[in-house]
């Protein structure tokens, strides 16, 4: 629906008028229209057609005409006229955290600033700080806002978003008026990158009817961790918060208790998933929005999220699956997968000790893994060609195997398997010979060099590695580093096909920098009958805690317990590994 676009157009008209110093009354009326439309939960195209839009308070005759014009022509003439009156880059200044129309008006009129670059220049030469109403502190805040804007790709890693959400949730839970909290949006769906963190708060409106929402938002936006407030209203606050690791955009919404489930559903998204649900609601002559599921004006479901699905005739869809990838159909036909749960994991296949580039010893890792309730772990230090990672020579590995066996004898409550993360060399051969590999319980083969080679080459290397009978698993198959390095140009379909043929597992590297295989590739692998091996690639005991990211990624790929190797008991795992090996 176009509500958001039209709302944004009215907001932009107000922005431009404010920058130009036009009539206050007209500016405010455009802002009001923007807000009213933004708050309407149903498609305003329908409201307009049905004649109800004219009756909505705040939308006058001239605004109504503009909305009609938009639906007819796709544009609003008054908006286009306003755009012509300012330099085209000027509106970009409004995207800087902490800069509003008033600030833009001031720098445009008094310092002739028309772009972010020119704004940077007047910050540097001190002119901005000298401007009335600015000063050193505000100029520095704007400089930080620009720096944030420039370094952000807009999206951040899952672990950084999670850290931010924990900070905000802890804060919100201690505020009076908060009844419940819930993470929503892409973070709740565990998407591989996060645009912004969405958090819902259920508040008891009580006697002062709605006053509490404003207080909660007020408290949030004035919290110590807030770097810049982007918006603060009676029910929604947006801010850039500073965590120990990153600056993160967080949206907090306060919703009444009776709509909490509906809001959780709506704001968890994805947008595409929600569109599918609304179609089903319409077919059932129901209306679905963030306030509830309605039959006429009667609420059918609202406080509890599960009931929204139930009343739509659907099985409950786990947030991880809400991407409009067939889950709504499956929910209708009771054929949703029972996706893997972190509790199903009984071992970790991928970790490094201080013998290569890790920080801990074998026993330390084993003791920490016991805390996770694991049945087994596998030590997989690097091989000699990974020189940067202090890879082991053949002799060193042989020695490590002996040491692992010895420590395993002494260790109670967990089995320590001997493994290796062996480099796949340029020609697809492996860094160690088969005789040594045969000594190992579990072999991960990974590409660590030449990732930028052409598709045919990187694919050939990977396929050839799988032909080795001792290779249990391909490590981080595409080699991507989120936000830092592109994946190899791998023919993923060919890799999956060959993995199925050779009984080779594919890793789901759980490190949030990698998440490799990614969700959709996990799904392709599962459909081809390939097993997934989830490994943390831990370089310390803390790293073992990354498992959840891998499990979520596999779950987003519709993986069930039986698709994942490290849900198998040790005995079953050993027999699975044997299938591929010569007798
Ligand atoms: P992100 O932040 O880009 O990683 O992705 P999301 O999914 O968190 O998106 P966001 O933060 O823009 O909105 C949160 C959820 O709110 C989104 O997943 C679905 C819901 N939502 C937001 N705007 C709309 C809309 O215009 N239509 C519908 N159906 N749902 C929306
Ligand atoms: Ca979001
Ligand atoms: Ca958001
Ligand atoms: Zn590794």
Can you characterise this structure?
The protein is α/β, with parallel strands linked by helices. The protein has 3 domains: 3-152, DNA polymerase beta, N-terminal domain-like (DNA polymerase, domain 1), CATH 1.10.150; 157-332, Beta Polymerase, domain 2; 342-580, TIM Barrel (Alpha-Beta Barrel). Helices cover 43% and strands 15% of the residues. The protein has a 7-stranded parallel β-sheet. A 5-stranded mixed β-sheet has the order 2-4-7-6-5, with helices on both faces. The longest helix has 18 residues, at 3-20. The chain is globular. 45% of the residues are buried. Zinc ion binds next to loops. One calcium ion is lined by residues 185-186, 195-196, 198.
- Return the CATH class of the largest domain: Alpha Beta
Provide the spatial order of strands within the biggest beta sheet: 11-12-13-14-15-16-17
User: Overall 3D geometry?
Assistant: globular
User: How would you classify the quaternary structure?
Assistant: single chain
Report the end-to-end length measured between terminal Cα atoms: 62 Å
Share of β-strand residues: 5-15%
CATH homologous superfamily title of the largest domain: Metal-dependent hydrolases
Total number of helices = 24
Low-confidence stretches: none
User: What is the total tally of β strands?
Assistant: 17
Mean pLDDT: 93
- Helix proportion: 40-55%
| CATH fold-level label of the largest domain | TIM Barrel
Main pleated sheet: 7 strands, parallel
**What is the level-2 CATH architecture name of the largest domain?**
Alpha-Beta Barrel
Bound molecules: 2'-deoxyguanosine-5'-triphosphate, calcium ion, zinc ion
């Amino acid at each position: 629906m176009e509500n958001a676009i039209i709302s944004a157009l009215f907001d932009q008209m107000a922005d431009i008028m404010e920058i130009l110093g036009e009539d206050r009354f007209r500016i405010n009326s455009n802002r009001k229209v923007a807000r009213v439309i933004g708050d309407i939960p149903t498609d305003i195209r329908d409201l307009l057609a049905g004649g109800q839009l004219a009756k909505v308070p705040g939308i006058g005759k001239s605004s109504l005409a503009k909305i009609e014009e938009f639906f007819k022509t796709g544009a609003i003439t008054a908006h286009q006229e306003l755009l012509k009156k300012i330099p085209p880059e000027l509106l970009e200044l409004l995207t800087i955290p902490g800069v509003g129309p008033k600030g833009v008006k001031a720098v445009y009129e008094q310092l002739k600033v028309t772009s972010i670059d020119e704004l940077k220049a007047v910050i540097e030469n001190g002119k901005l700080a000298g401007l009335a109403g600015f000063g050193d502190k505000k100029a520095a805040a704007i400089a930080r806002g620009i720096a944030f804007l420039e370094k952000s790709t807009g999206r951040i890693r899952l672990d950084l978003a999670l850290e931010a959400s924990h900070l905000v949730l802890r804060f919100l839970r201690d505020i009076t008026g908060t009844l419940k909290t819930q993470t929503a949006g892409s973070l709740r769906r565990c998407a591989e990158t996060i645009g912004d963190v969405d958090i819902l708060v259920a508040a008891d409106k009580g006697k002062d009817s709605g006053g509490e929402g404003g207080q909660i938002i007020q408290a949030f936006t004035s919290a110590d961790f807030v770097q810049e407030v982007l918006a603060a209203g009676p029910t929604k606050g947006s801010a850039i918060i500073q965590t120990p690791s990153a600056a993160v955009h967080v949206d907090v919404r306060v919703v009444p208790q009776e709509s909490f489930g509906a809001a959780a559903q709506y704001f968890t998204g994805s947008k595409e998933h929600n569109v599918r649900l609304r179609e089903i609601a319409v077919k059932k002559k129901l209306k679905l929005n963030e306030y509830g599921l309605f039959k006429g004006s009667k609420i059918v479901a609202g406080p509890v999220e599960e009931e929204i699905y139930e009343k739509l005739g659907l099985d409950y869809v786990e947030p991880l699956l809400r991407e409009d990838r067939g889950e709504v159909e499956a929910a209708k036909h009771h054929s949703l997968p029972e996706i893997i749960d972190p509790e199903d994991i009984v071992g970790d296949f991928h970790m490094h000790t201080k013998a290569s580039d890790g920080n801990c010893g074998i026993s330390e890792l084993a003791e920490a893994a016991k805390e996770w309730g694991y049945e087994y772990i596998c030590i997989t230090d690097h091989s000699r060609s990974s020189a940067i990672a202090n890879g082991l020579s053949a002799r060193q590995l042989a020695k490590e195997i002996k040491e692992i066996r010895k420590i395993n004898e002494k260790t109670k409550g967990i089995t320590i398997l001997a493994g290796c993360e062996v480099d796949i060399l340029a020609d697809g051969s492996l860094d160690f010979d088969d005789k040594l590999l045969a000594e190992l319980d579990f072999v991960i083969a990974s590409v660590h060099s030449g990732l930028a080679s052409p598709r045919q080459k990187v694919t050939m290397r990977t396929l050839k590695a799988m032909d080795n009978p001792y290779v249990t698993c391909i490590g981080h198959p595409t080699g991507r580093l989120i936000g830092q390095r592109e994946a190899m140009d791998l023919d993923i379909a060919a890799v999956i096909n060959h993995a199925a043929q050779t009984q080779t597992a594919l890793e789901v590297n759980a490190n949030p920098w990698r998440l490799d295989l990614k969700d959709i590739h996990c799904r392709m692998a599962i459909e081809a009958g390939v097993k997934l091996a989830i490994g943390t690639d831990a370089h310390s005991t803390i790293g073992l805690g990354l498992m959840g990211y891998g499990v979520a990624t596999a779950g987003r790929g519709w993986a069930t317990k039986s698709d994942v190797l490290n849900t198998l008991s040790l005995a079953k795992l050993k027999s699975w590994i044997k299938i591929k090996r010569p007798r």
